[in-house]
Fold these 2 entries.
Entry 1:
Amino acid sequence: MGHPAATATPPEDAREAARRIKARALELGFEAVGIAALAPLEASAHYEAWLAAGRHGEMRYLASPGHRERRADPARILREIRSVVCVALCHEPGRDAERDRRLGRVARYAAGEDYHRVMRDKLGTLEREIERDLLPGSRALWYSDTGAILERGWAERAGLGWIGKHSGLLSERFGSWFLLGEVLLDRPVASDPPLEREHCGTCRRCIDACPTRAIVAPYQLDARRCISYLTIELKGTIPVELRASIGDWVFGCDICQEVCPWNRFAPPAREARLHARALEGWTLERFLTLDEASFAELFAGSPIRRAGRTGFLRNVCVALGNRGEVSSVPALARRIRWDTSPLVRGHAAWALGEIGQRHEQSLAAVRTPLERAAGHDLDSDVRSEALLALERCGG
């Protein structure tokens, strides 16, 4: 790494500084905290190989030279960096079956308030207190999924856990239902040792459970096939061959974590802001009525806003098609005719085709909007989706 040589710090001062920082982080509500020694990460080579294989998909910013340089060397972010404080904040590990039935499935971390805001408040406080009280005169800089930081690599170095076969961080105490954050420091403080070994053993439940086969080998994830990527990061058409495997996930995915044996130890979230919102009165079908303004209002302060109205409604259409319920036909028929987004209209056509091929009694209700779209929609992709849907319905 390109940082200058560290100024010597008496060992007892470094240990006391680490103790005070950790104690304050725990007081702020973080479940775990560790301090990583500053040295090149093995995760950097893994990241470069992942990019070289093209497994980042449309997330092109990850492959930009500046982004890669900062990830490889945090001294490009904080020039005098000496230590990395890593924290973990648990989010709710449980699911509400009734809520999932009404709203589709949302990744647990995204069911409540946007975790970026929660982490900003806690880490911002820790950053200010380090600079003012814990290490007066120091420079601190916090991150939580907000910059070019190899978060899991630093957390692993700090002893918070090990990288599981699904490529996420795992902890013996907390499973994997937690969020990560970092505070970069320009002072050397006592670091923690990483775990001596990982604890996945011969288990491959996450690999076998992934419906889209996104975990292409142990510790190797192809984002282009990952349901989280497909429902959040991908801005265009979801590949037809992957749609059925998405099930009723409308934002993110938890499957590889749900099957992990270590998550039987996951504690409930103490941070109330991360608890799931009820969204009373809403259903998947009602989501299809959202325009840009009402989408922004409903999901204000929610991670779901990241998908955008068009991406989210695209996901809702896929979820309804996979559920295959005749009761969804009217809502989908309205979208295929009136939605302003060709992306939504095209996925609504696919969903209608899925329902029509499963329920003969719905064919008339399904064929009418599909025939109209196939013959008159102004977008060629929508016309193609409608024609293919009609073929699946028998003509």
Note: The beta strands are 32-37, 83-90, 105-106, 140-143, 162-163, 169-170, 178-185, 215-217, 220-221, 249-251.
Entry 2:
Amino acid sequence: MLIGFSLAAYSVIANDSAQTLGTFIASNSKKTKWYWMWAYASIILICTMYYGYLSGDIAHGRLNKIPLPDQFHWYHALAPALLLCMTRFGIPASTTLLTLSVFSSEVVLGKIIIKSAVGYGLAAISAYLIWTLLSKVLNERTKVPENKKNFWRRFQWISTGFLWFMWLSHDIANVFVFLPRGDDISFLALTGIIAFLVIALAHLFATNGGKIQEIVLSKSGTRFVRSACLVDLFYALILWYFKYYNDLPMSTTWVFIGLLSGRELAVHRIFNEDKKIKVIFPMLVGDFLKIMLGLALSVALVVIIVYLNSFQ
């Protein structure tokens, strides 16, 4: 249980950094010291954790259909260990599918996959429409006027804070699936858990997002504060919708990749009319194949676990 929690806590934050804090880091790394960004993210994490604990459900309802196993086995730690390896190679795997597949029944896992697929499609279509409309009034490729820079800078910190809270409400379940639920966790134990997560965040910011950050840097304008702010805001709003849609977990990674794909298609079509749209297909297909790899590994883990359980 402790090994699984430790691996999950580090790998979930490290792998999902691209979708939650990636644009924030990319657009601020040359202007703000990493420890100020870390302190900001840590304060939100601490408040979110204690809020969930005091409200009676630290996982924010994401584990209602995924009970704690009667006994932990070595294969429960296999998923976060695999996720850690994928993170080292910069593969944006779905932490939800990989981690929770080990604990979920086949029916629940199927519902999680369906919800994640819907999230991917909704994010891609919404992003394409939103950035197509935005282009009518805003050209993200032009420089932000000097008198507007402070506004966008402050707005980005607010939108990132909102996104970070919404992401934690979804994906912190991938960490706490290894721990007792509800009142079974003492306040002191929770404080120790939060300290571990804060230290993992420090490493994330000190390394500028790590290897997984490349998926953000490869997209148009994500180093610019205005573009980063808009990506974070619309991503947070999509997560907010799915949080209250139902209490099933979902792959926020799929939602994020869908959002970036839809945005990239819209930006390329609008500002590169002289170039063929197929130019960006290799990048978009590559991102899609990476999340499909994570799905394939998740299903493989379930098959392996069912096979192992048949001998017990």
Note: Residues 64 and 247 are 7 Å apart (CA to CA).
